[in-house]
User: Fold this.
Amino acid sequence: MDYRERIKNIREDRDLTQRDVGKVLNKSQQGYNHIEMGRAEMKIDDLIALCKFYDLSADYLIGLINEPVSYNR
Assistant:
C-alpha cells in the first residue's frame, strides 16, 4: 500500500479532517491535501509528527509493514 493511501485511511478511520491533521503538521488543509494526493512529498518531520500523533510506527505509516505497531513500543 502506498503511504498516501495509508495516511488517508488512518485519518478517515479516526474521523479526522484534512484540516485537523494539517494543524498537527502546521500546514493548511490544502497543504496536507497535497501530501495525500501526491502533489507534495511528505517531509521526515511530518512523518515523525504523524507517528507521534497517531501513536503508530513509521514502518506502518509508510507501508513497510501491514500490522499497526505503536510508536512507543
Remarks:
- The two ends are 23 Å apart (CA to CA).
